[in-house]
Amino acid sequence: MKKLLLHFFSAFLVIGCTEDSIPKPQGYLRLEYPVAKYEKFANDCPFTFGKNIYSVVKHKKNCDFNIEYPDMKATVFLSYKQINNDLESLLKDAQRITYQHTKKAETILEQPFVNPDDRVYGMFYDVGGDAASATQFYLTDSIKNFVTGSVYFNIRPNSDSILPASEYIKNDVRLLIETLEWKSY
User: Which of 173, 101, 100, 172 is nearest to 139 (CA)?
Assistant: First the structure.
């Protein structure tokens, strides 16, 4: 009986080991986000804009807001200022803040935005590399309103790791820019 069990066990091992093992392909992280849906955001401030329904707008002070993406640990910081005959200074400040990222940035692409029908003019900055903020922008009517914005993640910058989330939010920022309207016109 012991011999029969030993032969059976040996045969089982030999049969079980005859197939060649196939290595598994390397896996990649797959991040999926909901399809963006937009709604108009308006309050007592002199502007309105479209925002993703999956983001949360938090009022800070005056007309400054944080648009938070909790699932992505990211925030769009929006600041509003009245121009008060100081447009040149506000433009220089917005550009200076963007170009402070040149130490870590591989590229900074400037994309002008002009919407004369709604009197919205500005610049969208696409910052490549491991800069702290990959997206910066400013918008103005050139007379009395000036809005700046930047996107920051609540993690150490690594453009490869955050690329899907960064692209998702970058599309939301582009929509914000395209839908911004001044209330006083």
Answer: 173
The distance from CA 106 to its chain's CA centroid, rounded to whole angstroms, is 17
Tell me, what DSSP letter sits at residue 27? P
**Ordered alpha helix ranges (H), the chain:** 2-16, 87-99, 159-179
pLDDT, the chain, mean: 87
51-60 per-position pLDDT tens digit: 999 999 999 9
Q: Which two tokens stand for residue 22?
A: 């196939």
Mean pLDDT over 98-109 rounds to: 80
Which tokens is 148 given? 């700046």
Q: Which of 136, 137, 128 is nearest to 157 (CA)?
A: 128
- Tell me the Cα Rg of the chain: 26
CB atoms within 10 A of CB 22: 6
Q: Does the pTM of the predicted model rise above 0.85?
A: no
